[in-house]
C-alpha cells in the first residue's frame, strides 16, 4: 500500500512540476521590424542570451521586413508585441489606436543624414538641400518624418526637395554612390558601409550620438522599443514585466561587454560574411543603446513635435503623448530586483 501511495505521490508531484513549468513558460510572439538592423539588436540578443527564458517566457521572434509590417502583425493579432520604433505609437494615437511602449532600448534613433559622395562640393549644410533629391527608406516612414523635421528646423521648405524611396540596405548605398540622389537619411550598417568606401563622407546630422540627438531634439529621442496595444498590456501584466526584465538584463550585458563579445553572440546569418564591417557598424551603434530602459519624457515630446511638424493629421489630433508610453515596468524591475541596467 505504501508503495502504491508513494508512486501516486510521485506522479502527482511530476504533474505539478510540469504544470508549473508550463505556466512559467508563458508564450509571447514578438514581431521585429527587421532583425538584421542594428537598431533592433537588443531584442535579438535577449533571445540569444536566453534572457526571455530566464524571465519565464517562451518567446518567438518573427522577423519582418520593416516596422510597419511588425505593427500590422500586432494590430492583426498574429503577434503580441512589436519590437520597433516608438514613433509608431504616437502616429497611431492620432488615428485613435491605443499603443504603448513599456521598455526603450534605443535612446537615440540612429538616423543619419548623409551627403552623397558625388555631391559633397555643393552640399555643405542642411540648408543646401533645397531643390535637391533626398533619399529615404520609404514615404511615410520614420526617415521621411525625420527629414521633414530637419528641413523645417533649418528654414527649408520640405516641398522644395524631391523625396525618393531607396530603402535602407544595399539599394540606398548604391543610390548614394552612383549619385542618383544628392543625400539620404540612412541607418547602420549602411552608413558604415558607405563610409568605409568614402572616408571623407559628409554627415549633416547623426543621431547615433548623444550630442547631436540633444542638439536636434532637446532630449533623448527614443528609437527602438517594445510596445503593444494597451489592451494586451493590461491583460498580460506578468508577461510585460518579464519582457521588460529580459531587455533590461540584455542592455546591462551589452554595456558590460565589448563589441566583439556582442557580435559573437549574434546569429551568424545576421553578422554576415564581412565580420569586420559588422563590428565597425556595431561600434558606431552601441552608444545609442539605452542604459536604463526608461523613456525620456522630453524624447517622447520630441517625437510628437516631429510628427506634428510633418503630418497635419497628427498636429490636429491633439495627441496625449503621455498615454503612448509607460516607465512603470522599468521602475518595478528596479524596485523588485535592484536592476540597474548600466
Work out the radius of gyration: 22 Å
Based on the structure, what is the oligomeric state of the protein chains? single chain
Order of helices and strands: HEHHEHEHEEEHEHEHEHEHHHHHHHH
Strand order of the largest sheet: 2-1-3-10-4
Termini, distance in Å? 58 Å
Shape, principal axes of CA atoms: globular
Note the beta-strand portion: 5-15%
Q: How many strand units?
A: 10
Q: What low-confidence regions span 5 or more consecutive residues with pLDDT below 50?
A: 8-23
Q: Calculate the mean pLDDT score and round it.
A: 88
- Major pleated sheet: 5 strands, mixed
Q: Structural class, please? A: alpha/beta
Q: What's the tally of helices?
A: 17
Helix content range: 40-55%
Walk me through what this model shows.
The protein is globular. The longest helix is centred in the first third of the chain and has 23 residues, at 2-24. It contains 17 helices and ten strands. The protein has a five-stranded mixed sheet, sandwiched between helices. A five-stranded mixed sheet has the order 7-6-8-5-9, with helices on both faces. It has helices at 2-24, 41-49, 51-54, 67-76, 87-93, 142-153, 170-177, 190-197, 210-217, 230-235, 237-255, 259-265, 268-271, 275-285, 297-310, 312-316, 328-337, and strands spanning 26-32, 57-63, 81-85, 99-104, 112-115, 133-136, 162-165, 183-186, 203-206, 224-229. It is an alpha/beta fold and 342 residues long.
Amino acid at each position: 500500500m505504501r508503495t502504491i501511495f508513494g508512486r501516486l505521490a510521485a506522479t502527482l508531484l511530476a504533474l505539478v512540476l510540469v504544470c508549473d513549468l508550463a505556466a512559467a513558460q508563458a508564450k509571447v510572439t514578438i514581431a521585429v521590424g527587421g532583425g538584421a538592423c542594428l537598431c533592433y539588436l537588443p531584442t535579438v540578443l535577449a533571445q540569444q542570451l536566453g534572457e526571455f527564458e530566464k524571465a519565464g517566457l517562451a518567446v518567438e521572434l518573427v522577423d519582418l521586413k520593416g516596422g510597419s509590417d511588425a505593427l500590422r502583425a500586432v494590430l492583426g493579432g498574429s503577434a503580441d508585441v512589436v519590437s520597433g520604433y516608438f514613433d509608431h505609437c504616437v502616429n497611431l494615437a492620432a488615428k485613435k489606436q491605443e499603443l504603448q511602449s513599456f521598455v526603450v532600448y534605443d535612446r537615440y534613433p540612429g538616423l543619419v543624414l548623409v551627403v552623397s559622395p558625388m555631391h559633397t562640393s555643393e552640399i555643405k549644410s542642411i540648408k543646401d538641400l533645397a531643390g535637391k533629391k533626398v533619399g529615404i527608406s520609404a514615404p511615410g516612414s520614420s526617415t521621411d518624418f525625420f527629414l521633414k523635421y530637419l528641413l523645417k528646423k533649418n528654414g527649408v521648405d520640405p516641398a522644395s526637395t524631391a523625396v525618393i524611396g531607396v530603402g535602407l540596405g544595399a539599394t540606398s548605398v548604391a543610390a548614394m554612390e552612383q549619385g542618383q540622389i544628392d543625400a539620404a537619411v540612412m541607418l547602420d550598417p549602411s552608413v558604415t558601409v558607405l563610409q568605409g568606401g568614402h572616408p571623407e563622407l559628409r554627415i549633416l546630422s547623426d543621431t547615433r550620438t548623444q550630442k547631436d540627438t540633444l542638439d536636434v531634439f532637446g532630449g533623448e529621442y527614443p528609437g527602438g522599443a517594445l510596445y503593444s496595444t494597451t489592451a494586451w498590456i493590461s491583460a498580460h501584466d506578468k508577461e510585460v514585466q518579464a519582457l521588460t526584465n529580459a531587455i533590461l538584463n540584455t542592455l546591462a550585458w551589452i554595456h558590460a561587454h565589448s563589441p566583439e563579445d556582442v557580435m559573437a553572440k549574434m546569429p551568424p546569418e545576421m553578422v554576415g560574411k564581412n565580420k569586420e564591417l559588422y563590428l565597425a557598424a556595431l561600434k558606431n551603434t552601441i552608444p545609442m543603446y539605452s542604459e536604463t530602459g526608461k523613456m525620456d519624457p522630453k524624447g517622447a515630446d520630441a517625437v510628437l513635435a516631429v510628427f506634428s511638424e510633418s503630418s497635419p493629421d497628427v498636429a490636429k489630433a491633439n495627441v496625449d503623448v503621455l498615454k503612448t508610453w509607460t516607465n512603470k515596468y522599468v521602475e518595478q524591475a528596479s524596485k523588485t530586483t535592484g536592476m540597474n541596467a548600466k
